[in-house]
Amino acid sequence: MTNRQARIFAVASTAIAALVFLVLTLDSHRQFPELTQSKNITPAVIHGKDVWHKYNCINCHTLFGEGAYYAPDLTKITQHRSEPYLQAYMRDPSRFYDEQTHRRLMPKQDLSDEEITDLIAFLDWVSNVDNQGWPPRPILVTGSFVPGADTVTAAERDIDPDKPPPGVTPVTEADDIRARGQKVFRMASPACNACHSTAPGADMAGPTMAGIVSRATQTLQSGDYQGAATDVEGYIRESIVDPSAHLVEGAMYSANGTSFMPTTYNDSLTDEEIDQLVAYLTTFK
Fold first, then answer.
1. How far apart are the first and last CA of the chain?
2. I need a labelling partner for 123 at 20 to 30 A (CA). Which of 2, 84, 220, 270 fits?
């Protein structure tokens, strides 16, 4: 290749690369309004962003992978926690987590009610941005130090209702249903294990599922039960589809007569999936 040919090649390559970059940039800007749902940026969302910066939330938390990794990623937090929960949590985090027990160090910021409401509005807008899978892995708000929370046990890895290990088949149809329920427990949206552990004594945003059958039985027999269930299975199902039907007295899982449990499972899960989830939860005696 002569010097003249090399110069022509370099100039042409640079021009083509610049043209491709320009086209991709214009296409990105064309998609930004839809991807970011800019039409949903209200004054409350804008004020919530200001609150986020005012209290330096990014010093501990991350959004879209940007920020500190000292505390949980909050990119999708409103898909894992209900608004009543977030309202109560921001007012007084110490009522949810104990520093010695849970190693949680969230300070009480003394936010006003308006600041809390608008900050949640901002986080909800963030959670609905189409970030195209970034961060590249789901980051749950529970800590891996909690047994039975985010870790997957060897037994759980072995359970695949649609493809059992070689030579292994479910003993009964009931076993198969429970195995599918375990999958729902981890794969529902939001995932049940984002708030609930299966280890005894490991309460998180919600109570541990260990011993749920015994607690349900005691609740039904207590005389204080306010829901419509008549048996343990019905009580667990009611807790999933209508969590405010009965509130546990004194527990920090509700506020102002409303449970912090999401109310979307009746729509996001089929009746069959709820049956499977209930069957799985009834194994925790």
1. 79
2. 270
Q: Which of 102, 129, 125 is nearest to 51 (CA)?
A: 125
- CB-count exposure of residue 222 (10 Å: 0-12, 13-18, 19+): exposed
50 token code pair: 């200001």
Quick one: CATH architecture of 154-281? Orthogonal Bundle (1.10)
Q: What is the dihedral sign for C-alpha 36, 42, 45, 50?
A: positive
DSSP string spanning 38-94? GGG--HHHHHHHHHHHHTTGGGT-EETTEE-SSS-B-TTHHHHS-HHHHHHHHH-GG
Q: Dump strand ranges (E) for the chain.
A: 62-63, 66-67, 254-255, 258-259
CATH T-level fold of 37-139:
Cytochrome Bc1 Complex; Chain D, domain 2 (1.10.760)
Q: What is the pLDDT of residues 172-194, one digit of tens each?
A: 677 778 888 888 998 888 888 88
